[in-house]
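Let us practice reading a record.
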Amino acid sequence: MEMRAGEEDIEIGEDITPSVIPLSYALHDSFIHSHCSSCFSRLPSANFTQHHHVPTLLYCSSICSSSHFSPAELHLLHSPPSSDLRAALRLLPLSLPSSSTNRICGLLTNREKLMADEEISAHVRYGAKAIAAARRIEMVENEKNDAVLLEAALCLVLTNAVEVHDNEGRSIGIAVYGPNFSWINHSCSPNACYRSIISPPDNVLPFSDESRLRILPAGTESDNGVHNNIEFSKGCSGSGPRVIVRSIKRIKRGEEVTVAYTDLLQPKEISASNLASSSLSSELSFYRDEATRKLTDYVDEVTAEYLAVGDPESCCKKLENMLITGLLDEQLEVREGKSQLNFRLHALHHLALNTYTVLASAYKIRASDLFSLHSEVGGLPWEALSMSRISAAYSLLLATATYHLFCFESSLLVSVANFWTSAGESLLALAKSSAWDSLGKCGFPVLNLSPLAKHKCSKCSLLESFEVNLSFGQDHIRKAGFDSVSSRFLDCIGSLLQEVWGFLIQGDRYLKMFKDPTDFSWLGKSLDIWDFDAELTHNDVDFNCWTNKSVSGIEALGYTDQWRINTFQLGVHCLLYGGFLAGICYGPHSHWSSHIRSALNYEGK
């Protein structure tokens, strides 16, 4: 099955489906007490607090409660995790007799293939029995469960369900959509993306849902009759989280439309430092596979420990040491007589990007903890500000690294939009930190950041592009020119980075090897060990001088106003560019646009 563009070309940043209603859906168990089980909107805290320890399904309104399918769902809450089971249960009224369980509502159940796997088949049989037991609560006399049908419905959910994300990016449930969405195939270089729409039934949608279906099945006939005059279900009575598909590339008439089912930032390369001997290259693949496994396990272990124990300082030390020193082959099973290798993550490797994300979070937590500590004892939070700097630097490096990859694969547009937005938020949080204000207690100048409107950039006009994009959407994207907006943005942040980057990375051994976070050309010049003790760039200032009252320390603090202004301006640029890209991915009226306006204290139209 596949979907193709219809009778016209589709430009970048256009909705290519209306909001699609699900065939079935279910909240994850951990959200049934905080969100409406019908529309997935968040409940008032007073509503779910009293039911926190009681397995029940809650609703935000009488309209949503009327979509409660059966008491059997309550019974399934005692068989966690139950979201797959409850979604399968909701599919059963739409299902066909067991003789036709290869497809339900036009969707492949994949039952034969899944049941051939011993582990999966055991899960499916257990789930089908739980659904059967739940259905007996409301079955009429002499009615029987069709075991094959129950298995097929659950297999359909496992094959076709997608995660539903709320406005904060959390996966709160799953949904199964009809062929107009589910027949869109995966590609590692997709030309479209999709977004969830969560809204209470009595609320006006934050956009005008006038989009028409601009994609069609690949053919009108087929040997198995699937395409021929098929009747597609209308969904669950208009309830549930909807989905909209949107183009992220230009799609020609008749071209197949694809989306990504997985993370596109997959591992690409592990660099081995001293490979002078060509005899080693024949066995390099073996060592790379082993190194990849061990490095992945190590990062996962450190991250899990950080989340469980809550020791961000230990997490930062371990991960940065791994990035710097890599993995010596003494940690691997090296064959006798072979030279020692030193495996390190390439700076653009998928695992390195994940590590930057964890480090940005860990340094942010360290800053928060230190700031609270200094507030309690009445000290000056200079160290907390240092942690905030490095957190912002890792967020910025993550954005620039992903953008570098995006220049070679434009399908990474969604990831790039998210990372530029996060970098902008981190930089603005750093610039607005009250830790700066404490410097006034020492007689140093205190900066009052002016409103956003006074920080319009005449060079790139990003603020104007963001504002117009909110009003005119894809028409503005085409007229402004994506490449033109991106080029002007890079020129502007290049100038700002010359003033700010050295300040942000001071004191961090790993980050100091990136003299310019937008330039990755040096990565391909040599596989030699990097010199981490290289001299600082001309913008580096000893941030440790803040801890003393010497004349040199006071003179260094004289630069704080300009650092803070440049950091603020860089954050504004990153956030606006992230908003511009998000407008392409999600539309001008998405929650991302509202989120960015809020982060900027936006007071436009």
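A brief commentary: The chain has 20 helices and 14 strands.
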